[in-house]
Automatic annotation (TrEMBL):
UniProt key word Nucleotidyltransferase: no
Protein family according to the UniProt entry: Belongs to the glycogen phosphorylase family.
Entries under InterPro entries matching the protein: Glycg_phsphrylas, Glyco_trans_35, Pyridoxal_P_attach_site
Name of the featured protein: Alpha-1,4 glucan phosphorylase
Organism of this sequence: Bifidobacterium castoris
EC number: 2.4.1.1
Amino acid sequence: MTELTAPKSSVTAAQFADEIRNELKYTQGVTPEQAKPADVYVATATAVRKHLMDSWMKTQQDMVNGNTKAVGYLSAEFLMGKQLRNALLNSGLTDQFYAAVKELGFDAQEVIDAEYEPGLGNGGLGRLAACFIDSLASLGVPAFGYGIQYRYGIFRQEFDEDGRQVERPDYWLANEDPWGHIDYARDQRVNFGGEVVEEDGKRVWKPAWAVRAIPVDYMVPGYESGRVNTLRLWQARAYDEFDLLTFNKSEYLDAVKPQVEAENISKILYPEDSTEVGKELRLEQQYFFASASLHDAIRVFYGDAEKPDLTTFPDKITFQLNDTHPVIGIPELMRILIDEYGYDWDTAWDITTKTFNYTCHTLLPEALEVWPASLIGKLLPRHLEIIEKINDQFMHELADRTDDEAKIERMRILTAGENPSVRMAYLASYAGSHVNGVAELHSQLLKDVTLRDFSDIYPAKFTNVTNGVTPRRFMKLANPGLSALITEGLGTDKWLEDLELLKNLEPLAADDEFVKKFAKVKYDNKVRFADFAKAEYGFELDPTTMFDTMIKRLHEYKRQALKILEVIATYADIKSGKVKAEDITPRTVIFGAKAAPGYYLAKMTIQLINNVAKVIDNDPDVKGKLKVVFPWNYNIRVAQMLIPATELDEQISQAGKEASGTSNMKFALNGALTVGTLDGANVEIRERVGADNFFLFGMTVDEVDKMYEGNYDPAKFYEADPRLKTAIDMVADGTFSNGDKETYAPLVSDWLTKDWFMTLADFTAYHDIQSQIETLYADQLEWNRKAILNVANSGYFSSDRSIEDYLERVWMTGPLPTEK
Ligand code: OAK
């Protein structure tokens, strides 16, 4: 399928074909006859980069020479997805590409498929970072994304014959990466370990070992903005032996070990989502990229000046801390200013506090990073001193502001006692200019609960910026059919830059002809996904059934268990004849999820889902009525196929646990209806699309809190709802484990005795809403009308709007001036 693109590059398809031929010859060293699709992919990517080069250089020049403050987005994760089609779109070369590869005798899809998706993130936080740098470039705001170029991204997920998750290494760099440019000349030295000594009345850090940080630059082209920003991902390399020889011989062995291990620092992305593992390597990673990025920004804006005036640093760039992972950058900037540039403490503090802002992405206490002071002292002794001093200063400041000693004690950045630790969220909340949550409810809960003491003392720091998603990737690229229909309906494609224009689709929801066209697009997307699922996974999907999807990391709070228990109960209803054949709405339930490798119950839930899928599939009684599939290794590519094909989106987390969610936005924008709780951004989606166009169920945050207070007993809910009881009994009695009662015993026991996220308490409400869903689904015209209303009213959830909010509320900057 070709796509209409704007802006059109003036390059013709024939010229572009020549450029590709040229790259095949001079980059790949092959003739078009010898070339494989992978060669054509690399050649095309190389040609596209050249098209972007002038804008990239100009953007950097304008950023350095002008007066527009830049944004530095510091993030341990950037989950970018494939680059080729996005780069073609934003350079106006899509049509030329399709024509050129055809002329060269290749299948465009095979060329696109040759790109290996980099998985440099775990989930929502990493994908949000990718959407944000897309929007920054599209709005023409000068920006850097700063992170780590992990050699191994998120693990590749497979399932074994028992349905268990198996993690395989994702060696994405075993494939050519034509987008990344390694810039050896702009490396940075990052030091670790050693001790701090007193020299001439100054504290001097004598590190024990160092790592070379080498930037790999990725162009981030804006859509229709003519601007190209930079994503700079750091690679860790060892220095050569010369450095080691400077160490005292007797320490040689100790010294050589970290040297050899230097490259481990950028070797692997931690496959954790929300729960932290206290690993030394993780702190090394965090310091590695924070330190290299701060030094890099100083180099970018002040060149090699020996005595730059760094009091202007916060006017040059503002740094956003994407959760706590880069928060070690705060003491690092203090250290750079004091130790490397000779500023006094107060001046350094003034610069530092003006430079950083902090976004929190969680409500789970265990996801707020806390580092043992001993570990920081071992790896970064000078930073520990600085953190101690920040904490002292903070305690004094608090004593001036409140008499509440218990509160002061609660707020310590460095905890007291025998094994003190450093609370990174508190450090960020004290030192950052602004602190924000990622949806209204989340920001409110941060203020009321998680960071309450901080918001009491510093209310002006706290703000909300509701997340968003880029319509370029998640509508235009993922859903060409719907995009074309929207452009037809609106008479313009400007909605891709101003997503609120979707509002003008609202009247078309009353136009039966338009609704039918919309329904046809959805059906075609279902067929497309079914074809993909057949080719990729061997699944047989029936596109006439309802596509009901739950995609997100596997976590108890997200409650995949609620969904699978409802599926099991429905299966039992059909088997027992309780539900008549004619009353059944045939459904295909689609799951996509990775579980952290060490997360026992999450992995067991995956195994259960796979085995439920298997049992249902082998049962002729439910054929054509119910099907469950679990495409393994869910990633951005699968998301781009599956979201446009989905009719019902599951956002069923326990209220008060999901910070925002962003797939909920992607689904609404692609015309799915949501069944969801009042959690995260669901609340705002429902407000905008209208309560009639959203299937709400379940307890509210207040009800959840009350239930916790009342000593929640899940067994009562098990006893009270016969469907729930049957479903859990089936899991327990071996129905989904070849008769083995032990397989899921830990899961069953957790449900019946603990059930921290109250899956059982919400089960009945979740079932009750299903009949509303099915009644509406039976009236396809009405269903699709509501789906259109979801699209029309979700323009607010563009990441362009999120970035505009950050510009106004947090960063106080804007786009580079455009030339007349
Ligand atoms: C990851 C590690 C530590 C803390 C939070 C996360 C994370 O991925 N959080 C997710 O961030 C998304 C983007 O803001 C939100 O939409 C999700 O609700 C949140 O779980």
